[in-house]
Write a structure and sequence with these properties.
mainly alpha, single chain, about 120 residues
Length: about 120
């Protein structure tokens, strides 16, 4: 049960953090040039975005869960299982960010899910 919670936190919090940061950066916009002042303005706007802080917090939780999973399992098991974040990312992008996900990408997501299933059920 503990392992399931660790992997769920890695996938859900990690992907949720990426989605929040993506939303924050879409709100902030891009730097108009590579001059230090322009970059500083973007960084300061990003630091004022609540979505950015939510994303960073979620990604930190995912990182510490990853440390726990790596303590309990081999990296050859942990890394493929955490690939479920690709599935969650495609779903989150489509639902949360309203991004268009092409049929070819959904097929790729399905292949990743099949690969994770093979790794989970093939574990010793």
């Amino acid at each position: 049960m503990r392992n399931l919670v660790l992997f769920a936190v890695i996938v859900v919090a990690g992907t949720g953090g990426e989605l929040c940061i993506s939303r924050a950066m879409k709100n902030v916009g891009e730097a108009t040039s590579f001059h230090p002042a322009a970059i500083a303005r973007v960084v300061l706007r990003a630091l004022c975005e609540p979505w950015m802080w939510a994303g960073v917090t979620m990604m930190a939780c995912a990182f510490f869960a990853l440390l726990g999973a790596l303590h309990a399992h081999n990296v050859s098991f942990v890394v493929p299982v955490t690939a479920l974040s690709y599935v969650a990312g495609a779903l989150g992008g489509a639902v949360f960010l309203r991004e268009h996900v092409s049929r070819r990408r959904w097929i790729g997501v399905l292949l990743v899910a099949i690969g994770v299933t093979l790794v989970v059920f093939g574990k010793k």
